[in-house]
Structure formats: C-alpha cells, structure tokens
Amino acid sequence: MGVAGPSGPVLDRDEVDRALARLGAEHEAIETSLLALQDHAGRRLLEGAELTGTTKERWETTEAAITLLWAYFDAYAGALRSARQIRSRRRWSSREDLVELTELLRGESVTVAGSASTAAAPTTAGTGRLSERFTLAELVERMNELYASSLDMVVAADAVWSALPARIDLLAAELQRTRRLAHSVGVRPGEHPSGDDLERITRTLTSLREQVVSDPLAFWTPARGSSAPGGGRPDTTRYDREARALEEVRREIDAVLTVRQDAEARLVRLRDVLSRADRTLAEARSARGEVLAKIAASEVPAVSGPPTALQEQLAAASEYRRHAQWHRLSPLLESLEEKAEDELLRARESLTAVTAPLAVRAELRGRLDAYKAKVARHGLAEDPLLVERYDAARRMLWSAPCDLRVAEQAVLRYQRAAAELLAPRVPGDGGPQDRRGES
Q1: What percent of the chain has pLDDT over 90?
Q2: What is the distance between the alpha carbons of residues 15 and 17, in angstroms, rounded to a whole number?
C-alpha cells in the first residue's frame, strides 16, 4: 500500500493485477449473461408480440433496462480497457500509474451519459442530470439488479408461453373431437345442456388463448419468498376449470353413447318388467274377486289398473330410439327403469295384500288338520266332543263365504278341547290318560 489518495490507499502493483484479473472475470461473466439474455427465446418473442396489459407495461420497462444494461456494460468494458492499457505501459508501474489505476479501479471513474438511461427510471431518468458517475463496483451492482429484474420478466413470460398455449391447443383439439361426437348423438346447443356447455367452453378457450398470448404475465404466479429470476409458476386455474368442464361433458356424451349401444336391450327389459307388473295386477284383481266371493266380513283393498303413464313414456322412448334422439332417450330410460321396478314392487305388494285373507284361511285349515292328525295318533279321533268341534270348524272353513273371525274361534275351541284330552293325567283319578306312555 502507498500513501492514501482520493480513493483511499494507493494500490500496489500486485493489488492492481489481482483487481484487474477479478474485473476481467466479471467482465466475461457479465458479457456471457447479457448475450444469453439477448438470445433468450422469451425475449425474442416479447420483441415481436402484440402485447397488452401488465406484460406490455413491464416489457417497456424491461426493454429500456436491457438497453441501459448494454450501455453500462460498454462503460464498464471501456474502464477496464483503460486500466489494462495503463498497466501495460511498463512492467513495473510508476507511482503516477498506480495512483491513476487506483482512481480508475476504486473511484467514481465511470461516466454514463444521461441519454443512455433516460428510458430507465431506476437511474438518471427524472433527475435532470446529463450524466451519472459510478465506481466499477457500483456499476456491477447496478447491472446485476437490472439483469435480475429483466431476466425475471423474460423467464416468466416465456414459462407461460411454453406451458399454456400448447395445453390450450391440445384441449381445443379434444374439444373439437367431443363436439363432433356430441353432434352425432344429437347433443347440440339449444337442445341439450351439454351442447350449451361445449359452446361456452369453446368461447372461453378462444378468449383464454388470446389473453395468454398477448398478456402472459397476467397468468404468472410468483413464488413466495423467492428472489431468483423466474421464481414462480404459470397460473392454470382458468385452463384447469375448462378442462374439468370438458371432462364432465365427455362423461355425459359417453353415457349417451352407452344408451345408443344398449338401448334396445334396455327397452326389452323395461317391457318385460312392466308386463310382469301388469300380470301381477291382473292376478291381484282376479284374487280380489275370489276373496270377496269366499271370505265374508273382510276388508279387501282395491287393485289399481295398469300404469298407462309408464306405457306412454315407454312408447315415447321407443320413438326416441327410432329417430336416434339419444340425448333425450338417456334420461328417459333411467327414469323409466326406476319407475318400472317401483311399479312391479307395488303390484306384488297389492297381490300380497289382496290374498292375505286366503292365506289366513289356508293357515287355519292347515292348523285344524294338523290337530286332527295329532289326536288320531293318540286314539282320540272318535271322541264325540272333538268330532263335534272339528265338524263345526271344518264347515266354517270350507263354506263360502267364510267368516274368518268365527272360523278362527271354532279352530281355537277345537285346539283347546284336543289339548285337554292330550294333557297327562295322574293314574287313578278316573280321567282319560295319555296313551303315549302305553306305547
């Protein structure tokens, strides 16, 4: 170190050489970065694009910043070139050379004309100054700041352009295939909700692509807490929403296609279910007449007629199939299948309710005959009381109309009489004995 000068202690020869080597490496790195930025695909696209909105505003600032970057770099390169020339005058630099080099390397030795930075607000724009002076270190720091902000803008725009337009185009192609398929099965705008959805998705994708191309930064989400250039990701919210909407329409179209493929089989099954329901109702009506004729004092529910509304809907479904109106046939078939099953269940319940009195009579008849067989096995079939009560119960159960309440009481009287005779007796009490012991 020598005597202190305006920029601090005068550098010695070794310090000057080390400083020049460091500055030379910085010069190469900065030049490489600037050339890479100049050749960046995103920057070239920005230069030729018709920009709008946020992207237009930021590109105007960034373009001015890139111009200023090159002006700064030229000033930096000029200062480095001057320093190298001074150092190359002689092998052993004189004190005057070292003082000059110290001022050049450490002092505010770089002057940038104000016109070079007029368009760049971060520097001399608006200050009223014709030029601005920097140290080499300050100039490098300023270039780093401008480079980082410029690269961030270029990378963000390029990332959106690389991601979204291609995805939108693929989705648009899928949309066109879906539209053709929808048209083939009768799903058209104004006639089916899915047709209206396809029209809306088409309009939205067209508008979305135009916006992405002209204003990519409107679809960029910066990463939180990240200071690296280009930190963030493309915002695909609107694209994802339309992709999901198209997927829902595709599922609807698939359902309609499925209907087209198995419509006839489903119509045959529907006719079979409704036919079984009609037969069951007819059986219930017939059984109701029999019950009214054979069972007295019994409340028999009325039986409804065949479901004419379902038959009409079934005929409409057949017409839809005949005219290939699959989008209308699909929801109608689903509704008819549910209603037909309900109708068959209702018919079966009606038959069960109507024939309940006959089932009660059959149960009483079976119980009476079972007790008769039981007393016969014990040799009591000829007992006068049992014979009398059996004949009374049988006349009631096998006569028409049959009063179930009276017949049930008669069967119960026969049961009680049989139970008394079959009850075990203590030997010697003079009463009848259980013959099972003898056997």
Answers
A1: 24
A2: 5
